[in-house]
Amino acid sequence: MDTNQLVIIDHHKPIQLVVERMAIYLQSKIMEAYDEHQQVYYVFFYKDHYLTTAKATQLKRHSYIAQAFKKGIILPANHPFIQMVMSTDHLYKKRTFKQVIEKMENVIPPHELAFLATFFESFIPKKKLFAYIQSLYYEYRRNGQMFKSYRIIQILKDFAPSHSFVKELSNHLDFLKYAKLYQNQSDILFEKDPIFIEKLLFSRMRDETQFEKLSRLLEEKSRWLDLMAIYIQNLSSNDTYFPKLLELLEKHLSKEQKIEVLEVLLNQMPNHRHIPQILLQEYFSLGETNKILHLLSSCNLTLNEFETIEFVHLLEDIDLVDCHEYLEKLPLFFIPFFQFQPKKATEFLHNWIIQLLNKKMYSIKDIYALLSPLKKIREAAPILKKVETMKKLADDPDKQLLLGELYYQFKQYDQAIECFSWEMELKAVDPKPVQWLSKIYNELGMKQEYMAYQKLCIDMQKRA
Q: Which of 169, 174, 237, 330 sits a CA distance of 20 to 30 A from 132?
């Protein structure tokens, strides 16, 4: 199963869905997914607890889910955070609202259940949800827990602000002292009503002071994914958050997950100062040659001596021609290598040209054009001169012996044989092309051909 796919079990019937995006909003995470008929489904999580899946009909304009996808942090399909939220088997059972409540009663306190209930306004009659939340208020009230009762009223003020019950109790004398705490946004609410405080801070997190308070709240609750998400959300407007984000990624994610997040960030912010260099180091540590090539091709990075040598060692173990999309820029990466280790660089360049010729994807003319950035490198000049000569002699029938020798140096034996055979026909008394043919067939292990040309060579020398 692909990483952005999941299966919902609805009355024992499996429904395969493809996740398109996910909203992180307050205590919720909501995935928007599609089935094979393009029917929309929403997969609900409270913090990191799976709740249920609802088939979309029409989302109410000001409902919680509408606000989540309008004001929340929206992550695209295949974002690593989405994979972290999903269960390992990507398998979920669709539950009724009653089953969700029964499941979560053992996990979270009643005032959080009240807030959780508001998630489903677009899928469950509002009267039913209101009645459930109201029952939680009465339970607290009967037990004399006045502040907890008022926390429920605060949730209802967002959920149904025009309801007469809400209007009456919001201004009731019994709750006056608590109302003042909310009006003044007292620090005591950080402990007493984190749901209210989080919503307030989330709406203001572009402000640096409010962001710091929100990040502290999430850190105290160990909600690391949510914490990383708000850092990423604000990173584009405040790069000073990057060191803290990097610290969080290193502390709470695996190496592979950290790299995936940084890759997404680089795609969003291709001109970021630090991300390309950090990714480069990670790719080197994992030996990810193709990713190093892609990074060097797309970002303005300079390799130091150690990185240059390590990079060329990695290149020795891959088929460079398979990385054809990077070939045009690849010679530029060799320039520092010639500066640090000219002898090895020369050997590598020679072998690379052999690879290009062996694949027959590039003509001599193409290869010469490809290597043009190296013309000013003294150590590379002799090799480039050979390629240039091959380009010039390709259609010169009088220079086939020299062309054959150059083909031989780059291990292009078929082309060399063709050149020497042509030369042998034109100059029947010259033993040189025969000697070359004998040599090549011997190296190729073609003993019968080798012996034939060896005998011919000896006969020619006797007649000379």
A: 174
The ranges assigned to domains in the chain are 1-95, 416-464
Distance of CA 222 to the CA centre of its chain: 25
Q: Is pLDDT of 58 > 80?
A: no
- The model's pLDDT over 336-379, given as tens digits with 9 standing for 90+, comes to 788 888 888 888 888 888 888 887 777 888 888 888 888 888 88
- Residues ≥6 apart with Cβ < 8 Å to 426: 397, 400
Provide the whole-model pTM: 0.79
Residues 6+ apart with CB under 8 A from 169: 153, 175
**Distance, CA of 327 to CA of 321 (rounded, Å):** 8
**Gap between the Cα atoms of 296 and 292, Å rounded:** 6
Write out pLDDT tens, residues 186-207: 888 888 999 999 999 999 999 9
According to the model, what pLDDT value does residue 219 have? 95
Distance, in Å, from the CA atom of 232 to the CA atom of 241, rounded to the nearest integer, reads: 8
Mean pLDDT along residues 38-50: 94
**C-alpha–C-alpha distance, residues 430 and 398, integer Å:** 14
Q: Which residues contact 221 (CB under 8 A, 6 or more apart)?
A: 194
Q: DSSP secondary structure string, 342-355?
A: HHHHHHHHHHHHHH
